[in-house]
Amino acid sequence: MPDRPSPPTLGAVMRGIRSRNNWTLKEMSARSGIPVSTLSKVEHDRLTLSYDKLQQLSHRLKMRMSDLFAEEPESNVVRVTGRRSIGTMDQAVRVTTPNYDYHYMCTDLRRKLMIPLITRIRAHSASEFGELVRHQGEEFVYVIEGRIEVLTEFYDPVVLDAGQGIYIDSQMGHAYVVAEGFDEALVLGVCSSADDGLMDSLMSLHGDAAA
Length: 211
Prior knowledge:
It contains 6 helices and 9 strands, in the order H-H-H-H-E-E-E-H-E-E-E-E-E-E-H. The chain has 211 residues and is an alpha+beta fold. The chain has 2 domains: 66 residues, 434 Repressor (Amino-terminal Domain) (Orthogonal Bundle), CATH 1.10.260.40; 125 residues, Jelly Rolls, CATH 2.60.120. It has a 6-stranded antiparallel sheet with strand order 1-2-3-9-4-7, covered by helices on one side. It is elongated, with a radius of gyration of 18 Å.
């Protein structure tokens, strides 16, 4: 069986959007508010876009943020069993916020009920982190490197070392910060929900954090 094709790059997705709408680079620039030179570099995979630019693009073009992560229109997605996706860091979609560096894995699969992420944690305290976050579903976080402190609204803080994990209700206010003695920590997280709009919910949450 041939290998599964690699997921499209952001440049390929952008070219597809422009082609389907018969827009020139200049027309897409006018609609998105992003300079022609920047769009051209993105389309040729010489530049990526920051989170705020991706948010601006999806808002101006009236698209969901998750639609920028796959070229295939949702209406053409065929529901099948036996799907699989191999996640690698070089193909992950990176989103940077003040507290975390997120790497979304396996973004070529659409309408997932689980969202796997590799996350680098940078905040060191509740005051540095800010307001606790909440979103739909449940999540499991496993410490790969370093040590973290898990803050929740209903429980006392708990410290987890590498090799330990925690499962929580994501609708409960929560935050992950680096524990004393470490500069950063690396964790594997899996968020799940019965709602297939989980990806967009998480992306909206990133926007709040970045703001």
